[in-house]
Amino acid sequence: MRFKENIDSVVFWPVYLLMWLYTLITFIPWYFLTGAGKKKTMAKREKARSTTGKAEGPYRSVEHFDDLAREDFEGKDTLDKLFDHAVHRFGKADCLGTREVLKEENETQPSGKVFKKLILGEYRWLSYEEVDQIINHLGSGLAALGQQPKRTIAIFCETRAEWMITAQACFRRNFPLVTLYATLGEEAVAYGLNECGASHLITSTELLETKLKVGHIICVDNKTLIKTGYPEGIQIHSMNAVQELGAKPDNLCAPWKRPQPTDLAVVMYTSGSTGRPKGVMIVHSNLIAGMTGQCERIPGLGSKDTYIGYLPLAHVLEMTAEISCMTYGCRIGYSSPQTLSDQSTKIKKGSKGDCSVLRPTLMAAVPVKALLGGNIRMMLSGGAPLSPATQRFMNICFCCPVGQGYGLTETCGAGTITEVADYSTGRVGAPLICCEIKLRDWVEGGYTSQDQPHPRGEIMIGGPSVTMGYYQSEHLNDDFWVDEQGQRWFCTGDVGEIHPDGCLQIVDRKKDLVKLQAGEYVSLGKVESALKNCTLIDNICAYANSDQNYVISFVVPNQKQLTSLASKNGINVSWEEICNHPAMEKEVLKAIKDLASSIKLQRFEIPVKVHLSPEPWTPETGLVTDAFKLKRKELKNHFQTDIERMYGGK
């Protein structure tokens, strides 16, 4: 036997030598040409550290450790100056693009439902200089209609070029822009309009409501306007008509004052997870600082980039992303979730979706690379943190970095963003250069700066990107505070963990803590985050009553996985019937318990009953926010009958 082993080694050693040489010859050039060594060093280096040496922080980026960044371009301290700077640098280059609608068709499905399908042409572009002129005319026209500086003006409109043009006109004329979005709900939109007291509203014919109480309504599209049926005193205008009014010499030449850095730029209404919408007050200097931090994390941002805009512009993530792109000379092509890819719901079969035509290099959120034109070099995911498995899958499949960001409307979207070279998963990166992060002990929840192996606590974000509080709602401003140096801070309510390299991981949500009847504390967010890794689950809401001693859950199952499991159990019925089948509830509950045990959730944290929801939870259903965070109050109301059944033992 030993003789045979010796013979094998003699015979095969040349093969081993050739394999070793091949590996050496191919690996070394790859290692140096791709910069793999440098990237690995960058990924492992310290990215942020405590300014005090204490475990709780504050933590700052090592790239701007001595102070916090406030502006990207010296002296460009307001949004209008920033755009003027871009026009000067990129004047005749493409700025904003919209696809031409060639044809609309109604397509009847076998079910009898009728869907509108579009055949779209190429993108038509406005240059920076052309956008600049439109902005001048629109701002002048709004002033001619009675809009006053420092008086709010509202926009309730889909993501499109006219939205950004309106915003820039308002920034230039010092008209604070109130942003509202459709999925807030009719009552919330009316509440926001009433609270801000705007006399002018920019909207589209699709979103136009006769109940809206404002003096002037300006429609962004060129469709025929029906001007009847509105309350007396409301005037309806097209955006083109307002621009024509503003282009008249007397109006265009009328004197006006530009904003100061401390002037209000935006009142951004956000639904949050409970209660009435809150208007976050954002001044020019807040946005300038926040975008300075965000742009530093996007290497090579410039005029060779193309950004696809399709997320709601009424959200801070999309608005700051687009303004940042314009600042650096990127062109922005507009899209929508219904026209994004070749397979999108409004794209006629056989015709091209927006990504295939535009071929963007940058985008926010995370669809699929082949459907996105093939040129994507970086994606940024905001909203809820990605699970490690999901992020790893995306990094591999999309052949580009998929970064995660963490921030809030209250911090201008600024907080953290992972670096391109950082391929770790489950984390949201180090603090941006415009802000710093501190952890506050939350003893009741079991999180302190002395926790091992890493300090943990409630995340507080401080710096020039922290906004000024809630509009006309001083009683809601307890989460904002100012330190001895005059720096503003915001207490996020999220619980984080700081890793040795200074990167942040979101581990819990403070407001999700419930005390059970027996005295145990359950973090619903922690339970949900853990159980989302179950292959049978697409979304989950854990629920607990303080007068009960166990947790229950509502689950949106993964249709493919659960249907396959049902078939194996001999259950071949409709999707709704599968979700309502007791045997399938037991299967999902078993999977939950198996996963919970493997990751060592406490016994009292594991849901003991489950209800399966056949319908996905989307912003349109009102059960999640536009960032897809759970609306617990709405979910409780929606599933009240099931809660009573599961807690009543029926």
Automatic annotation (TrEMBL):
Q: Name one GO cellular component term.
A: lipid droplet
What Enzyme Commission number does this protein have?
6.2.1.3
List residues of the AMP-dependent synthetase/ligase domain: 117-471
Is Transmembrane found in the keyword set?
yes
Q: Which residues form a coiled coil?
A: none
The UniProt entry, under InterPro entries, shows: AMP-binding_CS, AMP-dep_synth/lig_dom, ANL_N_sf
One GO MF annotation is:
arachidonate-CoA ligase activity
One GO biological process this protein is involved in is:
long-chain fatty-acyl-CoA metabolic process
Q: Which UniProt keywords apply?
A: Fatty acid metabolism, Ligase, Lipid metabolism, Membrane, Transmembrane, Transmembrane helix
The residues that cross the membrane are 12-33
Q: Which PROSITE patterns match?
A: AMP_BINDING
UniProt name for this protein: long-chain-fatty-acid--CoA ligase
Give the lineage: Eukaryota, Metazoa, Chordata, Craniata, Vertebrata
